[in-house]
Request: fold
Amino acid sequence: MKDGKRRRGNSGPIAFFVSLFIVAVGAIQLVSTFNTYAADLAHLNSLKRQEAALIAQKQELENDISRWDDKNYVAAQARERLGFVFPGETAVRVQNPQSVTGVDTDTTSDDDTGKDSSKQLPWYSELSYAFKKADEPLPQVQTDKQSGATADDAQNQQDSVSGDTSAKDQQ
Reply:
């Protein structure tokens, strides 16, 4: 009988620590589950926001497609972007629009986009401008009016002042 009481007394702390260990493992599992749930919920919310943005983008693209099905819209875009005119019309291109309007086109900007739309030329004008610039001759060497020296002479003077005489020795 005395041995039975001792066994019950000795098994009490062991049972307590085993039950405490089981409760701790259960709490860790519960916290881990809630953490995973919160992470999955945040991911689900971000996917819903992304889905809403994609649906809005799809609607915008469908509106663009329906606009391009309209012949009047296509004609307006051809006039604006490519400078097309209908037969019988006369196209007028103003070389210096500020002389006609009195407003400097470099200072006006598009308020909707915040970009300076007056500086952007249509692609065909940019291409024409690039060809004109490529065909221009290189700038001539200018002479200094007071001393009659060229820009190359001025560079040679700067070289001699800085102590670079290797260029002169080779000449």
In short: The two ends are 122 Å apart (CA to CA). The chain has a mean pLDDT of 76. Residues 70-85+118-135 form one domain. The helical segments are 2-68, 71-82, 97-101, 123-135, 151-162, 166-170.
